[in-house]
Design goal:
Layout (H helix, E strand, L loop, with lengths): L2 H9 L5 E7 L3 E7 L5 E8 L5 H18 L2 E8 L2 E2 L6 E3 L6 E3 L1 H9 L3 E5 H12 L7 E7 L3 E7 L2 E3 L35 H13 L6 H6 L9 H9 L3 H25 L3 E5 L7 H14 L10 E4 L6 H36 L7
Parallel strand pairs: 1-4, 4-8, 9-12, 12-13
Antiparallel strand pairs: 1-2, 2-3, 5-6, 6-7, 9-10, 10-11
Helix pairs in contact: 2-3, 4-10, 5-8, 7-8, 8-9
Length: 358
């Protein structure tokens, strides 16, 4: 294909609007997203407890509502949990009662447009690689710091999913033998030292122990340690509270050590750090970069990857899910076009006059 023809092909490429859905433990976020990653419309609904059918109803209602206002061609769903390699079944979710749930089929039979399903960390990673902090890099490692640690490896704009679709569970790599007990059942998992949960756990322990270092944090929550959360600690650190700065730095150092190990395994060109805890910015990433450089195998004799804060914020999941859906919409359209052409060809063949009638 000539360069001019290639440019014409790109300029005439079908770029539909699609819907991205991000399902969390407390909310379902839905957005209409354009091809360039711009959010056209955004809707939010609470997650109805752990009821799988109510969550599916919420997804369908959101899509139908947005579909009445916009011409959308497909739906992408990012779910917190293990999604199988075919991207159709949620094998397990820690936040909802999904156990081998055929989510794609259940939603698609009610909305009648293409549906794709993926892990929410994968959708976030794809968005950051195409439209955010990972732009221009071929090999990108993404980690999300929230309650735990999620992540994904993106190679040439394609998410690496592994044999069973469950790659990217970086948070459950063991970094401390016989360390803190993890919700997964093991001990010493990385996310027990480098996550929002780890930050809050350590801060609450100091508040409950009436440590003089925790006096400012104690005053912020009226002495109620259970009211202490990540955003409160982050704001206190920004305001200069020494303990909050130290606690975030501790998480950053553990993050840097873990990322050095991930780099030894995968050699990324860029590492994107997202999730709620990434809002701490350089309070977190400064110690992360220092610990990373000290821990990296071959340091001083290799190119170090860029470590960047995610750029798309809480909308990254819906943007990435919608972008995956756009690919599905294009595939569906190509199939319809081929079938239409084949049908017209058969009709012409049927209508061709017989030579004996001439």
């Amino acid at each position: 294909m000539s360069e001019a023809r290639s440019r014409r092909s790109r300029s005439t490429r079908w770029e539909p609007l699609t819907v991205g859905i991000d399902i969390g433990g407390t909310k379902v976020l839905a957005a209409v997203v354009a091809a360039g990653g711009d959010v056209v419309a955004l809707e939010r609904r609470p997650t109805e407890g752990h009821d799988v059918r109510k969550v599916e109803d919420t997804i369908v209602e959101l899509v139908q509502d947005l579909g009445e206002r916009y011409d959308v061609a497909a739906v992408g769903i990012g779910a917190a949990g293990f999604v199988d390699a075919s991207r159709t079944v949620v094998m397990f979710s820690p936040h909802l009662d999904w156990r081998r749930e055929p989510l794609r089929a259940r939603v698609a039979e009610r909305i009648r447009i293409p549906v794709v399903v993926d892990n929410d960390a994968n959708t976030m990673a794809l968005a950051e690689c195409r439209f955010g902090a990972g732009r221009g890099h071929r090999f990108v490692l993404c980690v999300t710091l929230g309650t735990g640690i999620g992540g994904a490896l993106v190679l040439d704009h394609r998410v690496y999913r592994g044999a069973n679709g469950m790659a990217g569970e970086f948070g459950h790599i063991q970094v401390v033998p016989d360390g803190h007990r993890c919700e997964c059942g093991n001990r010493g998992c990385w996310e027990q030292y480098a996550s929002g949960n780890a930050l809050v756990r350590d801060a609450r322990e100091l508040v409950r122990a009436t440590s003089p270092m925790a006096q400012h944090l104690r005053s912020l929550v009226g002495g109620d340690a259970d009211a202490l959360d990540g955003p409160v600690i982050t704001e206190a650190a920004r305001a200069g509270d020494p303990l909050s700065v130290e606690l975030i730095a501790d998480v950053g150092r553990w993050l840097g050590v873990g990322l050095a190990g991930m780099t030894a395994a995968f050699d990324p060109g860029c590492i994107v750090v997202g999730g709620g805890l990434s809002a701490a910015g350089d309070l977190l990433l400064g110690p992360t970069r220092q610990a990373f450089s000290r821990s990296l195998t071959g340091r001083g004799h290799r190119e170090e990857p860029v470590i960047a804060q995610a750029e798309l914020g809480p909308q990254a999941g819906v943007i990435g899910a919608a972008d995956m859906a756009r690919s599905a919409a294009r595939r569906s359209r190509r199939v319809r076009v081929r079938r239409s052409r084949a049908g017209r060809a058969r009709l012409r063949l049927f209508e061709r006059p017989d030579s004996s009638d001439r």
